[in-house]
Amino acid sequence: MVMDKDDWYKSWQVHLEQYLKAPPRTGIFIHSYFPKLRSSLEIACGSSRDSIYLAKKGVKATATDYEGRIIDELKNRFNHFNLQYKQADAFNLSFADNSFEIVFHNGFFIYFSDNNKIFLMLEEQARVANTIIFFVHNRLNNNLVKKFRELAPNDPIYDIRFFEPYEVESIVKKSNIKIKNMKIYKFGGKYDVFYSKRIKRIVPNIIYPFREYLIPRLYQLQSWEETERVCCVIRVDK
Question: In the CATH scheme, what is the code of domain 5-236?
Answer without folding.
Answer: 3.40.50.150
